[in-house]
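Appendix B. One record, verbatim.
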Amino acid sequence: MKIISPKRLILCIVFLMTCFAFAQNKSERDLILIDKDWRFSFGHLYDTEKDYGHATGYFSYLTKTGFGDGPAAKDFDDRAWRKLDLPHDWAVEQPFSEKASYSHGFKMAGKNYPEKSIGWYRKKITIPESDNGRIISIKFDGIFRNSKVFFNGYFLGTEESGYNGFEYDVTAYVNYGGENTLVVRADASMEEGWFYEGAGIYRHVYLQKTNPIHVISNGTYVTSEIKNTNAAITAEVNIENKGNYKGSIEIVQTVFDSSGKSVAAVSENVVVPDFYKRANYISKLTVNNALLWDIESPNLYRLSTQIKQNGKIVDSYETPFGIRAIRFDAEKGFFLNGKPLKLKGTNNHQDHAGIGTALPDELQYFRIKKLKEMGSNAYRCSHHPPTPELLKACDELGMLVIDETRLMGINDYHLNDLKRMIERDRNHPSVFCWSVGNEEWNIEGNIVGEHITEVMQGFTKGIDSTRPVTVGISSGFKSGISSVVEIMGYNYLGNGDIDAHRNQFKNQPGMGTEEGSTFATRGVYFTDDAKHYQSAYDKKPRPTFYSIEEGWKFYAERPYLAGVFFWTGFDYRGEPTPYGWPSVTSYFGMMDVCGFPKDNVFYLKSWWGNSPVVHVMPHWNWSGMEGKEIDVWVHSNCDEVELFLNKKSCGKKKMEQNGHLEWKVKYAPGTLEAIGYKNGKKILSDIQKTTGNAENLKLTLDKENVPNSKVMVVTVEVTDKKGLHVPTSNNEINFSIEGGKILGVGNGDPTSLEKDQFIDELVLVPITNLEEQKLASADLPQQLPSYSENEWKIAFKDRDYKNQAPAYVYRGEFDLKNNAATNVVSFFYKKIGVNATVFVNGKKVEPSAEDSQKYMLNSNVLKEGKNNIYIAATPLQKIKDWDVMNTDPGIIQVITPAELWKRKLFNGYAQIIIQKDETANEAVLSATAKGLRSASLRN
């Protein structure tokens, strides 16, 4: 009998307890971001050969389970594909073309470009053996669009819309303890919207691991009722059982405040749902002295939901939420926490300069901060469900949101999309209204629209009864949708008589869901139709449309209207009204695509914000216009403003409520100054100075950047010798970076056809005309001998795999458009033999040390035009008669290095978005330009 010492016994107990704790922890939920290290390649819309032979097998992925072919196959060789990280928008990488889509910014992608309309993504994922027994799923926040997803060759499903989040359970297909392959095919050939939409996996992807008993995704619903200083919380949770356990579980619900302190908790024992069934459970909690969420103090709480089985935690689910009360009143407008609040909103699409729709999370905060700085308190998602990170930013920064579905209808396609949006977003305190449609001209004014709205509105209330429903309507405010929708959404004053509609439907609250649509180009003060530039003065854009000032005055003067959402906060790609090519972005924004403010920002800031404002426009660099009158406007909320030119008064004027001031001033170089007065006292001023020539480059981190983040937005400008910003400079600036990478560049010029991104060009060149000869010996040649021309035949044709030669020599050819010394050319060999030697243009090439089936081809071996490749190899043998043997020798990869990053300034500004490397202590951005002193920025 072996005796164990007390010391060893204690060590064994400690080890077993550690293993038990590890196993218990493993049973809980893991949500792992898997945005890094993907492979990408373009396929083809209709040419199956260019689409890597996908869906051409005798058995397709729809015929037999696990028969994903081409890139959908688990072991497809993707080594030659491009490496990248998500999020990714391949459309923004493409050049511009007049033949491309007007509404999508003239980028060479989509249905007219079949070679750039299909994108394949592949990623390797290792899942340990210890995860066996857990539920493994893949979660996508959004893919544009019509995606097909495969896991280890198994087809998981299709998601048509580019705006929906979705997930797939892959538990049955996992190779535990080994490598797994996730594959996505995105088809962006069809447009969903009439605005730039991007292409590809432009939102996050996650690997999720849970216990068989778990809270489903978006499976909690937290509502609150404010009672004096306390809040009654109702926490509903939807639990699923994908295991065989039968019996009771304990549900523990705990509310934590922003400091992490527990402020309420409750637990209850319930019967677990049956196998592959779900059940809802409701808990009641009370938060004493509740801190309310509002736009000034966006207080947040966190609900922790734990599921315990036999006393052990098997799942934990976190739900951020806020406590607040919202109410619309047909006479008095909108109320937040019992206080009236005029909605000061903007509509926005989801793209940004330089990066398209693939916004890093930090850019969501940057953009919302820009809008709040302008005085905005509300945001309409136009016209689709947003990325989750946008709502997170709105929750944390205090921005109200209208959350909008993509398409109206009453069938599963429409209602299921609506349901997913509401269930995903209904715990966000920022979301105060659901929009079930926008400008559906075919149905707005008829009985069809009425019926559809009633169905969608009732359907919405069945999922979330705490928020109202609206529709943005533009084709008259008389009948149809406008007669039944809960909150009337008026799109543009010129489209109908709002006061008349209100008098007819006095119990129906209303708000301006779109208004303005004014045209302005940042930094331009004389319209030049030849150059496609619109003056930045706030003017009526079209006879039936209204200026920003006219629109705000209308809504501000009517208490019964809850507020207004101007079109738009930011310029966006596409819809370059009133022009076409070569304009590639809109002119509607209060800010340009970079977030640089146009002058209308200061009008809204004057009347939307709480701080004193004085802004004088235009700039004062008008060489050649001496003695000519210039329109000078001042945006301010001061009582009076006095204007000075070179210290000589041009007159003091009183400011009209919600108005602006104008002067006619004969231009003379110098200083233009506007001084604002409150109660007769000077409180602030704004100055425009005539500058000298541009001499210095300047790089500045925008104050709206998220502190200590990896992604940063940098403003690029030039100054004169006195350090004054030069507002007319359009210099071309070159950029380089150490310790990071550049994500994109922009400048806000609506006519700029410059590249948004400078990335290496990767071209895959096929090996064609593959022929073979038998060799008498298995000894492979080390020098290329001469072979009889009469012996060559088509490779692998009629091969008798039971009676193969000792070895074969294969020859093929590939074409190179150029043989630049800077190109990086590689041959990715796919095994067509057990052992092989490779010759290119008669010279033997050696495999790389990192990959025995990759050959680096130097320019001194290659030539422009046709190149020959010979492969001598001992043959592969079939194990089973039905084995399919590889007959593809591989692919030639040609990488042409990108040119240096560069961008022209537009009216004094450009923007560059950078990302610091994970391991770098700092990133150093450098900027140079001809004739200017260089600049650098360390962060």
